[in-house]
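Quick one, T. Sequence first:
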Amino acid sequence: MNPARAPQSSFESFTRHPLVRALIVLALLFVFLVGVNGLGDGFKSLGRDVLESFFAATENPFIALMVGVLATTLVQSSSVTTSMIVALVAAPENALPIANAVPMVMGANIGTTVTNTMVSLAHMGRREEFRRAFAVATCHDFFNFLTVAVLLPLELATGYLQQTATWLASLATGVGGVDYDSPIKGALKAAVGPIKDGIGAVVDSPRLAGILLIIVSAGLIFTALFLLVRTLRSAMQTRVEVFVSRVLGRTAVLAMLVGLVVTTMVQSSSITTSLLVPLVGAGVLTLEHAFPVTIGANIGTTVTALLASLAVTGVNASAGVTIALVHLLFNLSGTVMVYPLPAVRNLPLSAARKLADIATKSRHWAVVYVLLLFYGLPGAFAVLNQLLK
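Structure tokens:
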């Protein structure tokens, strides 16, 4: 036994205690909510002219969609993107209209698939393994493409998601007409206060102070989610692998529930879907068994935005709940639209297999696919938007 490792082992055993880990998770959730609250306050400080220029950019739903894609691919987390969208929608200065935010949420759903697609590239050294791994990664892409292709035009024509979410939010916020002063919101305001005071002591300009508050708040959101994911992943990863491989082949509903529960617990759909890549690549699971888990993960990832909506206060608080519900309804609608009918369900699976065949024959196309879809296409839309102004 190496005595030099004893202190490290003691610390690890301490942090593995369920009570300690639960306290760490609660603390990280609080930091995450503080970041969401501070982000809204920071955008309020920027002034109407800056906010109106942002409105103009996102009034085009296709540009808003690409903003959601690009933002999520850059931070590697739809949870971060959707949490920020909630904060912007709920900001006191109405930093982002709900109608502009809906396509951004859809784009975040597409952008989050970049992680497991990149994970699949690690299997390029083994031809058949790569074919299976790339297919299961990209079936997530094609499911989201199909959902966006149907629901974005439907939303633009009818406002289905926004109107339904607004109705549900009104039920949640108006039950019994009780004016409830949440102690969580009071604690969040108390936590954001010293951050704002510290920034105000360093800079004199309100706008610069707002920018710094946005940067600090975004850092808190990203860091809290990153540490939260690591904490929960270290506790669950090996257990999840065993559990997933044992039960997924039974029923599609059970597989969806597994994806939903695991994603809710680790606060990241990327972890759930990335876990499927090596399992399918190794032949432990089939593409058909993994697909409903991916759909469940899509639903589970909406919990983060719903948590973020708890942090918002003021006249636009219900708007934050509304956009979080839009995210949930979008994924539920996609599930109901795609999965029940075999002919529709097979569309993303067939497309993923065909793309995997192409990528296996000439593997540089897999890299081109990732770069073009997740970075090149959003950038091209942004340039085109500027040229057409």
